[in-house]
């Protein structure tokens, strides 16, 4: 089946990560596999709010975010299945596709909320990863509107 799976972490929808890990474990079947994760910090790209925040405060916020990502990864991924857990800065879908290129996973598991009107106008990271990934992408649907 699969033995090398990439699961992006979205801290705004962290409740989806354990579900994705469950799916990954099912996809491993009887094989041993590794779950890799990526969190993309897009605050420097998409937010002007950090221009209002002191550099020291912003630095502390990023340190806390990194700790949270690591904690989520270690809490939900069984130790024997833990692969890499990276944090990057940039545009979410671009960084996921870059990580795919570097890691060459068998599959990427991405979470997606139930589409709303905004998704027709803006699209979503999951959609862009699905369209542009070189390999397999499975979308794990959440029934909530994001």
From TrEMBL:
Q: Which residues form the UspA domain?
A: 1-141
| Pfam families found in the cross-reference section | Usp
Which Gene3D superfamilies does the entry link to? HUPs (3.40.50.620)
Q: Which SUPFAM superfamilies match?
A: Adenine nucleotide alpha hydrolases-like
**Which InterPro entries does this UniProt record tie to the protein?**
Rossmann-like_a/b/a_fold, Universal_stress_UspA, UspA
- Similarity section: Belongs to the universal stress protein A family.
Record protein name field? UspA domain-containing protein
């Amino acid at each position: 089946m699969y033995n090398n799976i990439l699961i992006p972490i979205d801290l705004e929808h962290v409740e989806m990560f354990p579900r994705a890990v469950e799916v990954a474990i099912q996809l491993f079947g009887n094989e041993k596999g590794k779950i890799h994760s990526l969190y993309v910090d897009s605050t420097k790209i998409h937010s002007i709010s950090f221009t209002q925040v002191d550099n020291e405060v912003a630095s502390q916020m990023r340190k806390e975010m990194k700790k949270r990502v690591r904690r989520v990864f270690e809490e939900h991924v069984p130790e024997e299945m833990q692969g890499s857990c990276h944090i990057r800065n940039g545009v979410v879908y671009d960084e996921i596709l870059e990580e795919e290129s570097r890691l060459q996973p068998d599959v990427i598991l991405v979470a997606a909320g139930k589409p709303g009107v905004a998704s027709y106008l803006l699209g979503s990271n999951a959609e862009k990863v699905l369209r542009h990934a070189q390999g397999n992408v499975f979308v794990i649907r959440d029934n909530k509107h994001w």
